């Protein structure tokens, strides 16, 4: 299941897409000096979002394809400690989904291509005054990935609290690093974090997650 979380989170996570590279004691050290250093790698191609459907009641924002293999990396260095995260902020498709999520749970859809080539679909189905409804669907799965094969032709749909959308967490990061990466202000990170947190809730607190679907998660 950890592999699925990375695919969706990062396959979409930060909430997921976040790793700690510790050169000394594997702990967070906060200090005002020296100034943070940032580096990044490959930037994905810009994906232009389109509207699918002309009927107001069923308008669906198509955010295109997010290719996880083309997402670069951001690095934060301070006092010998190093944090690195996937640079979702430059992925226009994830940004599109984040903006839709923040726009009153606007209905939207995205395709996520994992590094092994498997493509799955994620949707913002809608919402009410308290929750946004998120859905993840797997259809065809790359046969080379045995772990993912069990999720073929299945889906998971859960309600995600609007309060957490508006005030996202920064798991695994210090407040200083979280602020430096701009995670709480980035629509792409907010969306990715929401999907990853949805899966964690479905695993560890299913009675509170309000989920449906035939996806078997453990």
Structure in words:
- By secondary structure, the chain is an alpha+beta fold.
- The protein has one domain (2-16, 45-70, 91-212).
- Helices cover 26% and strands 28% of the residues.
- It has seven helices and ten strands.
- Strands 2-3-6-7-8-9-10 form a seven-stranded mixed beta sheet. It has a three-stranded antiparallel beta sheet with strand order 1-5-4, with helices on one face.
- Strand 2 (50-52) and strand 3 (60-67) form a beta hairpin.
- Helix 2 (92-102) packs across helix 6 (187-204).
- The chain starts with a helix and ends in a 6-residue tail after the last strand.
- Mean pLDDT is 74; it is low at 1-57.
How many extended strands?
10
Distance between the termini: 6 Å
Helix content: 25-40%
Query: How many domain units?
Result: 1
Reported for the largest beta sheet, the result is:
7 strands, mixed
What characteristic shape results from the CA principal axes?
globular
Task: Outline the low-pLDDT stretches.
Answer: 1-57
Separate helix tally: 7
Q: How much β-strand is present in the residues? A: 25-35%
Overall pLDDT level: 74
Strand order of the largest sheet: 2-3-6-7-8-9-10
Radius of gyration: 17 Å
Content-based structural category: alpha+beta
């Amino acid at each position: 299941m950890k592999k699925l979380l990375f695919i969706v989170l990062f396959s979409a996570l930060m909430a997921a897409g976040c790793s700690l590279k510790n050169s000394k004691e594997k702990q967070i050290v906060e200090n005002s000096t020296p100034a943070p250093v940032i580096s990044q790698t490959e930037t994905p191609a810009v994906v232009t979002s389109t509207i699918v459907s002309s009927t107001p009641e069923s308008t669906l924002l198509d955010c295109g394809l997010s290719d996880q293999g083309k997402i670069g990396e951001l690095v934060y260095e301070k006092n010998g400690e190093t944090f690195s995260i996937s640079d979702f902020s430059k992925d226009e498709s994830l940004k599109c989904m984040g903006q839709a999520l923040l726009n009153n749970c606007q209905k939207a859809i995205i395709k996520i291509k994992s590094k092994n080539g498997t493509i799955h679909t994620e949707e913002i189905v809608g919402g009410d005054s308290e929750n946004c409804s998120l859905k993840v669907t797997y259809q065809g799965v790359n046969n080379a990935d045995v772990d993912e094969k069990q999720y073929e032709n299945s889906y998971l749909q859960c309600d995600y609290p609007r309060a957490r959308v508006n005030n996202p967490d920064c798991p695994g990061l210090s407040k200083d690093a979280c602020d430096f990466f701009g995670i709480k202000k980035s629509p792409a990170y907010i969306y990715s974090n929401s999907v990853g947190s949805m899966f964690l809730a479905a695993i560890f607190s299913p009675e509170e997650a309000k989920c449906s679907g035939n996806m078997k998660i453990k």
